[in-house]
Every structure is written in structure tokens, then in C-alpha cells.
Amino acid sequence: VQLVESGGGLVPPGGSLKLSCVGSGFTFSSYTLSWVRRAPGKALEWVAHINNGGESTQYHDSVKGRFTVSRDNAKNTLYLDMNNLKPEDTAVYYCAKGPNSRGQGTQVTVSS
Fold it and tell me: Measuring CA to CA, which residue among 31, 29, 5, 27 is closest to residue 108?
């Protein structure tokens, strides 16, 4: 299993970013996938997940209405659209397949 995230960066409060995660080594379209994040000095936190077909999504309360998770199974790619970013969204973001498979992460920093 390989998961490779990209798209992180430095944005001001209120800004937007779109993260991508390309999966390989497994049947991408068969699995529910998640985004999780780790803020400095804090535990890993679940952010959102999407079922294998993309019809069902769920979000942590802190990101509801601001983040959108989606996937393109033809491209083996998972996305996270992040809008109205806040300083408390600063973290390393990981895509995850189950509890034990994560990518290397991509840094998101929200600061003026």
C-alpha cells in the first residue's frame, strides 16, 4: 500500500487549499478512505472520510461546512478541498486507508 499526499502550503486565514492523495498497491475503489491530521503537540485527529463509491461522506464538527472530501476512482486519487482556513487548521495532513496505512503527509500552515 502506498499513499502519497500533495498540495499543502502556507495560506493566510480565510484562504483555501486543495490536497490530493494518490493511492497504489491496492484496489483503490474498494475502500473507504480518510483524511487525518496532526497539529503541533497534539494527537492524531480524524478529519473526514468517504466511502468507496464516493456517495457517503462524514466530517469532524470542526471542519463541517468548510472542508469537502471527494475521490476520483478512475485516477486512484482522494481529495480534500479546504476553504475558510483557520490558524487551528495548521497541521500535517495524511490520507489513510484503515487505521494502519497512511502517507507521509503534507504540511498545511494557516498564518498571516
Answer: 5
